[in-house]
């Protein structure tokens, strides 16, 4: 059929994407923007991963081999910021962009132009972040950022101009995620297919609704905190400068008021992905839909009022630490309930173990482990020992890699056939899974022992008593890091071709996204589906 | 580290939880054996939580592993499509949280009891007060009851050998069986006092005084490190506590007091020193106090730490040089060094103005420092 025969009214529905760069630069299409988010996140994953591998390479042996102390601390700072703001959050936003409209039967996001803006701020922010890393290597560039991602003053007041680049990068990243969150909330509230009420939405959509609210509530607090830092650095204020009557601890409160909910921002979307994957491969309905929704809302509220468990050592009163301890331990109730519901969904299922399901099972096992060390850390007296040791590093990597990153990997494998229309190479993907998970455990499990034996985190050099476990950990990190090249290869291979995927892709898949062909047309659900 | 010990250490990983605890501490996979009741309390609550969470982990793992082994399609297992609608599906959202809550309360209850015992410094009896001041990158200990001060810096690798980063030039000597109150503060950025055998970790925050306490019950040498990122040489802030009997402690205090009097007499502003003596003294002081930033070579680590070799300050006017050493430079890691005595400052400046080819020939006497202060 030639385009000339189409009626003008239908013209918009049938025209394809614009050609060339315009398609991407000016995109208002949720699928294209979702793809761009995911590619951006993948690039950042490699940058953040490379910095982590440099850190681990330096820590392979005692002594200074590869890095200068300030460069080491700069890498520690950038690794965290790149992974959190560059890799995990954009990847989760990419999944949201791609899947939320498909899952709720909407033609696109509610605010497509803002969608374009919230994505295109990211490359600018990432450039700013990279600048903060490289500026000190140029003449007059000042000293490197040696504070870690927590940016605690007074140390952050000593750093040169790269800290200012970093502060503006954080502002931009914050603006981007608040815009994306507004878009997601508006889309979910206004664009659902007729007949779909909130309690019929897939859990993934629910997790993003909660995440978006969390982001809007906490990101401005971080923006305020770093702005005060900027003022202390350049405009003579003394918010955090004790010599001027300020309070260095105030920054920690502001930072963690954002920083703790941020953990849930990273984890919840991946938990939403699990709620799609596990029922598909267990071939039975999700267990405990309502309690999952209730749990994540509880996590959102409790998660916002327990921030000071990151600061048990600052000398708070007995009443304050008791409150933060009990609040933190209580979070295990909704989180435990979510894990329970997923296990109960597997229970008495008829399971097969394709790569997404392998990741899902690995997540349940390893996240449970990370969650339980979290309870240990919540206990104030014991945290007097764990605090700021390698035990903490091991704990949060056990929570954030399975809880956030592996969930995103699982989601990518789960939906990649839907996005590209091609099946990925299952054999290679399983090899990737095993190398990845073994490498991960080899890297982070020994770090628990290092922490208990007394090795602080963020040190470039250590006594020889810590050598063996650091060596194991570094070897693991190289395996873990390099395994992601295989992931890249599998993704490229799938995009370029492969066994054509059916519309349903997975035998047990349920939900509106599987009603569309694979890949879905450029504009999907132009006529809203009817929900019974 | 002998290889055999490493092998034992890795083998013992799997028996971590239920076998002899002290042995595990020595192998470096659990806390070291506590040396104070506070640390013992912490140790006990750590082991309790670890055991409870391990049991929970085994339960969770068993269900998942049972399920992935038996409930699989390849074994012909038919999915139970109505499992989520059974009584279990309808009510688990109540009894699962109830069970988790019970575990939570068990942990929280025991933790709270421990907390009440250790958190607040006892007020009812005489405590020995020790002020701990964190600096970039050394520790200063002020024995408030004895009017002495100790500066403690890491020992370089050549001297420390296997104890590198676990050894200092001057240890923190403390008496056993005495309740000690630690008052933590900082002169520049955040630091944290952490000696695992004493139990507590506490941040040193500028503008704050945070307190902890301990009563050391056995003699020995206990090693720890700064635990809060404090900049470039965060890794070079070891803490070494030497716990000795009360008698030994008393004689140590006397010794320190004698040393202090001698140093004061020597540093008298009236005495005139030869250039060679000042240079030699200055070299030792510079290498221990200044070289962390400006380096032994005087080349510094620009841009954070400027070079002194050929620098406009070290080769320019003496009064500017004195001013920056005495008052520090705001917004940088350069702190005011006015806690040093006249002789120390005079010799450091003399050294800096004549070392590394700075050959200005200048000699700064204690009297000049006195005049500038």
Characterization of the model:
With 532 residues, chain A is mostly helical. Chain A has a single domain, classed as Cytochrome c oxidase-like, subunit I domain (Cytochrome C Oxidase, Chain A, Up-down Bundle). Chain A is globular, with a radius of gyration of 23 Å. The N terminus of chain A is likely disordered. With 373 residues, chain B is of the alpha+beta class. Chain B folds into three domains: 88 residues; 137 residues, Cupredoxins -  blue copper proteins (Immunoglobulin-like); 106 residues, Cytochrome c-like domain (Cytochrome Bc1 Complex, Chain D, domain 2, Orthogonal Bundle), CATH 1.10.760.10. Helices cover 43% and strands 16% of the residues of chain B. Chain B has a five-stranded mixed β-sheet with strand order 3-2-1-5-8. In chain B, a hairpin with a 4-residue loop joins strand 2 and strand 3. In chain B, helix 10 crosses helix 11. The longest helix of chain B is centred in the N-terminal third of the chain and has 34 residues. The radius of gyration of chain B is 28 Å and the shape is elongated. Chains A and B meet through helix 4, helix 6, helix 9, helix 10 and helix 11 of A and helix 1, helix 3, helix 4, strand 7 and strand 9 of B.
């Amino acid at each position: 059929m030639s385009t000339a025969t189409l009626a003008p009214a239908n013209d918009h529905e049938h025209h394809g994407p614009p050609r060339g760069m315009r398609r991407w630069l000016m995109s208002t299409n949720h699928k294209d923007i979702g793809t761009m988010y995911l590619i951006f996140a993948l690039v950042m994953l490699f940058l953040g991963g490379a910095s982590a591998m440099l850190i681990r390479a330096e820590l392979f042996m005692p002594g200074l081999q590869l890095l200068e102390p300030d460069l080491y601390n700069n890498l520690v700072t950038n690794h965290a910021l790149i992974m959190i703001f560059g890799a995990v959050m954009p990847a989760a936003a990419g999944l949201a962009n791609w899947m939320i409209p498909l899952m709720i039967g909407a033609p696109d996001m509610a605010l497509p132009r803002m969608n374009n803006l919230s994505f295109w701020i990211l490359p600018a922010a990432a450039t700013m972040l990279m600048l903060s890393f490289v500026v000190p290597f140029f003449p007059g560039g000042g000293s490197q950022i040696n504070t870690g991602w927590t940016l605690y003053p007074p140390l952050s007041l000593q750093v040169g101009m790269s800290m200012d680049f970093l502060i503006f990068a954080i502002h931009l990243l914050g603006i981007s995620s608040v815009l994306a969150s507004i878009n997601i909330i508006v889309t979910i509230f206004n664009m659902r297919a007729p007949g779909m009420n909130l309690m019929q939405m897939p859990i993934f959509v629910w997790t993003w609704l909660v995440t978006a609210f969390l982001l809007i509530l906490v990101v401005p607090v971080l923006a305020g905190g770093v702005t005060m830092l900027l003022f202390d650095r350049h405009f003579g204020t003394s918010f955090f400068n004790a010599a001027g009557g300020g309070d260095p601890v105030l920054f920690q409160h502001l930072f963690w008021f954002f920083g703790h909910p941020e953990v849930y921002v990273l984890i919840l979307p991946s938990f939403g992905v699990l709620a799609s994957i596990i029922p598909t491969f267990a071939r039975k309905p999700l267990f405990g839909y309502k309690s999952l929704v209730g749990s994540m809302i509880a996590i959102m509220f409790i998660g916002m009022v327990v921030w000071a468990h990151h600061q048990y050592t600052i000398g708070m009163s007995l009443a304050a630490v008791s409150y933060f301890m009990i609040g933190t331990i209580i979070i295990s109730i909704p989180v435990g309930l979510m894990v329970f519901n997923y296990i109960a969904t597997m229970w008495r299922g008829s399971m097969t173990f394709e790569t997404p399901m392998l990741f899902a099972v690995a997540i349940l096992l390893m996240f449970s482990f990370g969650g339980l060390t979290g309870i240990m850390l919540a206990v104030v007296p014991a945290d007097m020992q764990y605090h700021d040791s390698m035990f903490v590093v091991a704990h949060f990597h056990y929570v954030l890699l399975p809880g956030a990153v592996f969930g995103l990997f699982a989601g990518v494998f789960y939906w990649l056939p839907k996005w590209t229309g091609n099946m990925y190479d299952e054999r290679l993907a399983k090899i990737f899974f095993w190398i990845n998970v073994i490498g991960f455990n080899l890297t982070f499990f020994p770090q628990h022992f290092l922490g208990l034996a007394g090795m602080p985190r963020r040190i470039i050099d250590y006594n020889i008593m810590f050598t063996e476990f650091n060596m194991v950990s570094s070897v693991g990190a190289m395996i873990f890091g390099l395994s992601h090249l295989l992931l890249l290869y599998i993704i490229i291979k799938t995009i370029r071709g492969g066994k054509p995927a059916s519309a349903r892709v997975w035998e047990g898949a349920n939900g509106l996204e599987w009603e569309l062909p694979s890949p879905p047309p450029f504009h999907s659900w132009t006529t809203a589906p009817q929900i019974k | 580290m002998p290889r055999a010990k490493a092998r034992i250490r890795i083998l013992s990983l799997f028996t971590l939880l239920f076998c002899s605890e002290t042995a595990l501490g020595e192998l470096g996979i659990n806390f070291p054996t506590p040396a104070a009741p506070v640390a013992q309390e912490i140790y006990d609550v750590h082991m309790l939580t670890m055991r409870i969470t391990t049991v929970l982990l085994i339960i969770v793992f068993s269900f998942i592993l049972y399920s992935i082994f038996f409930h699989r399609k390849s074994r012909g297992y038919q999915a139970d499509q109505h499992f989520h609608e059974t009584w279990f599906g309808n009510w688990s959202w109540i009894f699962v949280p109830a069970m988790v809550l019970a575990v939570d309360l068990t942990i929280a209850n025991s933790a709270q009891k421990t907390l009440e015992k250790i958190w607040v410094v006892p007020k009812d009896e005489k405590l020995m007060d020790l002020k701990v001041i964190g600096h970039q990158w050394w520790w200063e200990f002020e024995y408030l009851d004895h009017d002495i001060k100790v500066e403690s810096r890491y020992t370089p690798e050549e001297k420390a050998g296997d104890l590198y980063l676990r050894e200092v030039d001057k240890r923190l000597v403390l008496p056993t069986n005495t309740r000690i109150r630690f008052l933590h503060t900082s002169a520049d950025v955040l630091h944290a006092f952490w000696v695992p055998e004493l139990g507590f970790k506490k941040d040193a925050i500028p503008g704050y005084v945070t307190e902890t306490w301990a009563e050391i019950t056995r003699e020995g040498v206990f090693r720890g490190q700064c635990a809060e990122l404090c900049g470039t040489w965060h890794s070079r802030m070891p803490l070494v506590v030497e716990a000795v009997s009360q008698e030994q402690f008393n004689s140590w205090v006397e010794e320190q007091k004698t040393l202090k009097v001698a140093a004061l007499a020597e540093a008298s502003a009236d005495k005139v020193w030869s250039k060679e003596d000042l240079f030699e003294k200055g070299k030792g002081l510079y290498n221990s106090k200044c070289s962390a930033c400006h380096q032994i070579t005087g080349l510094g680590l620009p841009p954070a730490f400027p070079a002194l070799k050929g620098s406009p300050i070290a080769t320019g006017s003496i009064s500017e040089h004195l001013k920056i050493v005495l008052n520090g430079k705001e917004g940088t890691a350069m702190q005011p060094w006015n806690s040093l005595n006249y002789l120390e400052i005079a010799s450091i400046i003399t050294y800096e103005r004549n070392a590394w080819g700075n050959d200005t020939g200048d000699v700064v006497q204690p009297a000049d420092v006195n005049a500038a202060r």
